[in-house]
Amino acid sequence: MMMIRRALILTQFFLTFAAAAQAPPVSGTRAESLVIRNAMVVDGAGTPASGPADILVRANRIAEIVWLDPVAVAEGRAKRPAAVTEIDGTGKYVLPGLINAHAHVQDERGGIPQPLDYTLKLWLASGITSVREVGAPSTQQILDLRGRSERAEVASPRVFVYARFGAPPEPLTPDAARARVRELKRMGVDGIKSVGVDRDIMTAMEDEAHKVGLRIAHHAGVEETNAWDDIRLGTTSIEHWYGIPDAAIKDGVQGFPPSYNYNNEVDRFRYAGRLWREADPEKLLTVLDSMVAGKVAWVPTLDIYEASRDLQRAQAQPWFADYLHPTLEEYFRPNPKNHGSYFLGWTSTDETFWKENYRIWMNALREFERRGGLIGAGDDAGFIYQMYGFGLIRELELHQEAGFNTIKVIQHATSNNARILGEESRLGRVKAGYLADLIVVDGNPLENLKVLYPTGVEQIVNGVAARTGGVKWTIKDGIPYDAPRLLADVKEMVRQARAARGVAR
Ligand SMILES: [Zn+2]
Questions:
Q1: What is the distance of C-alpha 126 from the center of its chain?
Q2: pTM of the predicted model as reported, rounded to 2 decimal places
Q3: CA of 67 to the centre of ligand 1 (A)
Q4: pLDDT at 455
Q5: What pLDDT sits at residue 1?
Q6: How far apart are the CA of 104 and the centre of ligand 1, in A?
Q7: Ligand 1 centre from 284 Cα, in Å?
Q8: 366: burial class by Cβ within 10 Å (0-12, 13-18, 19+)?
């Protein structure tokens, strides 16, 4: 009798609850309020999951997180926030929107047009709500995109504009470098991406950038400067890695063969794979400690070199079948004319060196964080077999492979990246008062980062193989986007582009 009564009460409760359920969100439209009900929460601050909770969004802010007491819920006396629209988060995980700290907004590859929407929709479909754009050919074009994104005129992550510094026409004198920094500041950029400049120019540029309040991302290539310059000058983040082992070589220069030519990309990437082994382990720790002391963060972009250690894996990624745009496919093909498409005569020996390179690099990353260093995550996609969005999820898997707990891995792509941007007081957390950049994931990414791939994972559900996972909703600035629908748009875009060009797969 008791059992029946209890069942009745529960049935009544759920009926009442069902009747009171609000409308689902309309993709691309910000409602006055939105509640994500009964979801598990991963905050992004390096703390474990907790929940379930109801997360209330008002306009573009997280208004309230209500932790649910299961007993109170069962007895129908739980306080549940009301909202105009509602997402059922049962069995789902809510995370801060992912931040892509090393992104390239691209609308062409190798001079062939590629729809801007292709890039933007793939990022959103992968749960990316902010990108740090590091060095587009046209700064003004990216500034315009930033504005259109802010005004919700385009479905796009937030854009932080880091203008390329060092590209032609490159400032040739320290004074010209300072003038260029001031000009960029007037244009309204968020920061500077420095590539391949000599020490005198870099010194002037960084000094001026600090004065006007611009952050600096340094693509630390094999060049005159290395991590010691970043430490001395106060670079915000080192992108990639070369400048770090380079700073730890006892003799000061890698043992290149005499025929080496930096501008030959086969040479460049082949011998980059033999750089980490030359770093003196003791000196390397001193470099890492000095980066920590100098507050130089590290955005390693592990994913963008992966083809060098496993070309076959890179060339056979399953999402290429439906989502690889023919423009990008053509660009990825080995061709000395395209940057990063250097796989001509790539050998098993090259891959073996690169596997060792990764092991030392990954250990250095772990040491860096253990010593207090700040690590971010970015995909650098659009090059070397990495697709927008998918590349960032692969990057997260590689952070796990480096030895980081998945809780820390999520932190790298959320609150750490927010700190690198200087946005840590309003982005990168699931926290009341923060901007409503959230993702609703079908599955637990702390158990399996692969559930973040837009194409999901294969699981056994009720005894049969089924595809689950993926981001269901990407909420940016309070605007919910139906992520599977964005992915379907991309698939259709690719199908049409292939048909138009007579490309069969
Ligand atoms: Zn890049």
A1: 9
A2: 0.94
A3: 40
A4: 97
A5: 40
A6: 7
A7: 24
A8: middle
